[in-house]
Amino acid sequence: MKIHEYQAKAILHDFGVPVPFGHPATTPELAEKIAEKITGRVVVKAQIHAGGRGKGGGVRLAEDASEAKKIAGELLGQKLVTPQTGPEGSLVRQVLVERALEIHRELYLAITLDRETASQVVMASAAGGVDIEELAHLHPQKIHRFFIDTALGLRPFYVRRMAHALKIGKQLLPSFLQVASNLYSTFIARDCSLVEVNPLVVTGDHRLVALDAKILIDDNSLFRQPEIEAMRDPEEEDSLEREAMESHLSYIRLEGNIGCMVNGAGLAMATMDMIQHVGGAPANFLDVGGAADVERIEKAFRILMGDSRVRGVLINIFGGIVRCDRVAEGVVEAAAKLKMVLPIVVRLEGTNVKEGRAIFRKSKLAIETASDMLEAATKIVRSVQEAS
Ligand code: GDP
Ligand code: MN
User: Fold this and answer.
1) pLDDT tens digit sequence for 54-79
2) DSSP track, 246-297
3) Which protein residue's CA is at the shortest distance from atom 12 of ligand 1?
4) Ligand 2 geometric centre to CA of 223 (Å)
5) pTM for the full model?
6) Does residue 36 carry a catalytic annotation?
7) Ligand 1: distance of its center to the CA of 314 in Å?
8) Which of 162, 175, 192, 338 has a CA that sits 20 to 30 A from residue 208's CA?
9) Which bound ligand lies closest to the C-alpha atom of 130?
């Protein structure tokens, strides 16, 4: 799950990481009030679930409270386009108003998981700031990686190595040790999959401050992170994914145009692979689960069709716990209600498969059937290509 910068900073603050003083605002008037309290220069930052805001004009300095109000007025209610939002941009509903800092150096410090070594990895660079993606691409050696033995945790010797790589002087070393170890505590205690501070700045008065913060939380841990669950901002999330989550369906939107409805995560992934294999592109991952009843299937089908990019549907069901006839009923009902005209290919196997197939035959829908996955994938990819 993603959270906003101001929420990530509140968490870091609780764990003892220095962050600039500031508050979020939903109106220009509130932004002005916060800026008045701060006095002096402030920075007004668009709060959206995407980075690259600096480059998109979403991070702006204001000399005083009235300028902060003006900038907040310009940002709020507008769509901000950054290198990470895509061309359609992201609507700004809140801004963070913070005391502006004098920046001496911009560092990069992040903790995430490394699948290859099955350990935590700290990434650190002396060249932090808005060009970090470019740096990772052009000069990957400038981002140092420290693999953490999870049994040891982040020991001071690791942090001293990082400090050396970042050319942190003696004077700042104690605060750097503190910041790094507090970031690590946050990462562990809050079940994060990413804690990223970019930039971690050395201020003009020689302090280390997290100027920006990005935290991703492992969705599977939300049951034990109620405070973080409460930070969810549904308006920032994909509306179809949200609807799916509310119906306990596991659905992930992808870039392609073939909608997939499958039971079981493994079969769903195999189906997506098969579509790719025959030259198509899946529009989504969708696991309707084992206990799918007619309503659930109908719901799943509606979510799938809610994606305007979908040009055809592949239904691949292995009836184990779920019965094929139930699935067929759900699909036929939903397709009729939605006045479905797109090509559908169905591959059914398992419990009550005959009854299921009979339901499809009797329906007036233009449904093609297939007897295995390869045939199913080939047929739907061909139909979609022919139609376009
Ligand atoms: P991002 O572009 O979405 O990652 O947003 P950041 O919060 O990282 O801000 C982008 C850039 O704006 C930073 O790298 C800084 O260079 C600049 N910036 C942000 N806050 C301040 C500030 O308080 N003072 C100064 N001088 N620059 C700032
Ligand atoms: Mn940043």
Assistant:
1) 999 999 999 999 999 999 999 999 99
2) HTT-EEEE-SSSEEEEESSHHHHHHHHHHHHHTT--BSEEEE--TT--HHHH
3) 54
4) 29
5) 0.83
6) no
7) 46
8) 192
9) 1
